[in-house]
Every structure is written in structure tokens, then in C-alpha cells.
Amino acid sequence: MTSQANQSSIFLDVFRRADKKDNGQISWEEFVSFFADGVMGKEELETLFKQIDTHNTNYIDPGELCQFFSQHLGEFKQIYDVVEDLHTKINTALHTTAKTYPAETRMNKFIKRFLMKEVTNQVSALQLPLESASEGMDELAKEESGDIKPVEASDVLKKSDITPGRVGRRAKRQTSNQSQNSIFDGTMSSTLTAQVDRLSTLLDRLEHGVNTDGFVDEDLEALSSDKFYLVEFETNIKGDSKEVFRKAMRTYIEGANNTEGCLSTCVRYYKDIGSFALYEIWDSEENFKKYNGDGTKFSVQMKDYIDGPVNNKGLDFPASWWKKNA
């Protein structure tokens, strides 16, 4: 992947998180909600918004955002050249390890755990100086702001539209600033700092990773008629058995789809590790078990083509979720 593609991928992720309405464009309100940092004033952010909006549409599209920040990388260019590749390689390693770890020997499991912890230590060692530098830059910017009033999301959003992520990040910054002094006093708990970091990360994920439009807080009765059943089968196939496995899988799925109570089936194949995942949705766990027992039917039909055990897990979910999207 080229460096320009790496940078675009990162800024497209920024765009996705800022585009809360998930409509392919960032409005002025979304821009302030995402980029307001407790330092920049409203007029300053308006100027920045107009500089990015080169098409003069009063909205920022993905291309405009990527082009603007790619042109201003400066000394961060080399970092952005490698960070997306690192992200991809870590995800690949984690996914592969999750599949192979259960069958490893105790010695190999120890080695994998050690390597995982050491990766965490190395990434943390990179994160700490970056956070410290970021906080120092924030403090310097605040000192230079003079009488400029920082813009807040509440200045451009209705109260009902404000989400908690910005609050979480502000709390993190405040706690981090306190920790700069408290560390020397011996009064700041590293455990507390870690918990605040985890909370801030969770709030960010809730803010940017979940579209809450149309969200309804439901009060449900704990009745079987109010619940559907989702089950997952996951297994690795033998290297020379993919085609016959697919045929056997097709037969199994046709049988499931023709059985009373089966609402849907879906198959995913992870070609890099030769793993299949089958998902089934049933109107009740009882009907699933009538067809499949405790998962034994699937295991028996596939036993000649699979390499290792079949992982089988299921869970109930509100039937209204399925009916709402049916």
C-alpha cells in the first residue's frame, strides 16, 4: 500500500467518526462536535471549515478532508506512512492468534502470551510520549489564546443532540493535567489513570462507532415469545476439502432453511486462515435444537472435511430487533 493510500485510509476513518449522521458529508455542527478541542474559537473553526470545504457546499466530503490534512502532514508524514500498515498487521496477527491459540501446546501458549504482552508494552511506550507532547501543545495553545472563547458543541447543537464523548475526552485531559503535578507528590494512582483512559476510550467508541439515530430504549418481558435465537458455528477446513465442504455446507443450509423456525442463514469464509463461520437465526432455541440437537448435526455432517473442533455458541436477542428490520 502506498503512503498516500495509507494517509487516505486514516483520514477516511477520521471522516467516518466525524460523520455522525452517516450520510457521506460533515455538516458544520458535526465539524464542531468532532474538532472542538477546548482551544479553538468559533470564528477560527469557521475559517478552517471553509478552507477544507473547497467545493463551497457548506459540507465537507471525504475527498476534501483527506486532501486538506494530507497537505499539512509535515513532520508527521513518516508516522502516517506506517501507522495504517501497523494497524492492519496487528489486526491480522490478533485474528490468526484467536483461531490457533486454543489448540496450541502449553509452551506455545506461554510464548504467544509473552509476545502479546511485549507488543502491548512497545505500543504503550510509543503512546506515552505522544500523549505528553499533545497535552503540552494543548496547554501552550491555551496560554496563547488570550481572550478567545473556545467553541463548544453546545454552541451549535441542540441539547438533545449532544453526546458524551467530548465530555469523556475533556475529563481525560483534566485528569492528565492533574497527574502531571500529582505524580511528583506521590498522590496520583496509576490505576485510576488507567481506568479514566479506559472510560474515555469507551465513550469515544460509543460516540463515533454507534449510530444512535432511531435508538429506542425498550422495556421487554422475559418471555420466550419475545426472543429469537442466534447461533454461530466456526471451524477450520482441511486444505484439500474446501469444495466438498462447500457442497456439504450448502446441503446443510438448504435443510435448515426448509425447517420450521429458521429465519435466516449466513456464511463467512476467512480465506487467509481457511476458517468458515456459519450464522443461523431461529425463532426459538427450541426449534434450533429440534433440527440440530446441541450442534451435533452440523458436526456430524462436516466431520470428514474439518480440521479440529467445531466451536458452537448461541444467544437470545429481542425479537423486535429482527421484526423491525424484516
* Oligomerization state: single chain
- The DSSP helix count reads 12
Query: Termini, distance in Å?
Result: 39 Å
Topology, number of strands: 4
Rg: 25 Å
The rough form would be described as elongated
Strand content: 5-15%
Largest sheet: 4 strands, antiparallel
Strand order of the largest sheet: 2-3-1-4
Helix content: 55-70%
Order of helices and strands: HHHHHHHHEHEEHHEH
Would you give an account of this structure?
With 326 residues, the protein is an alpha+beta fold. 57% of the residues lie in helices and 11% in strands. It has 12 helices and 4 strands. It has helices at 3-18, 28-35, 42-52, 62-70, 77-100, 106-144, 165-185, 190-209, 242-257, 285-292, 296-302, 319-325, and strands at 227-236, 262-270, 275-282, 311-318. Strands 2-3-1-4 form a 4-stranded antiparallel sheet. The radius of gyration is 25 Å and the shape is elongated. Residues 162-192 have low confidence and may be disordered.
What's the topology here?
Layout: H1 3-18, H2 28-35, H3 42-52, H4 62-70, H5 77-100, H6 106-144, H7 165-185, H8 190-209, E1 227-236, H9 242-257, E2 262-270, E3 275-282, H10 285-292, H11 296-302, E4 311-318, H12 319-325
Antiparallel strand pairs: 1-3, 1-4, 2-3
Helix pairs in contact: 1-4, 1-5, 2-3, 7-8
What would a concise description of this structure say?
With 326 residues, this protein is an alpha+beta fold.
Key structural traits:
326 residues, alpha+beta, four-stranded antiparallel β-sheet, elongated
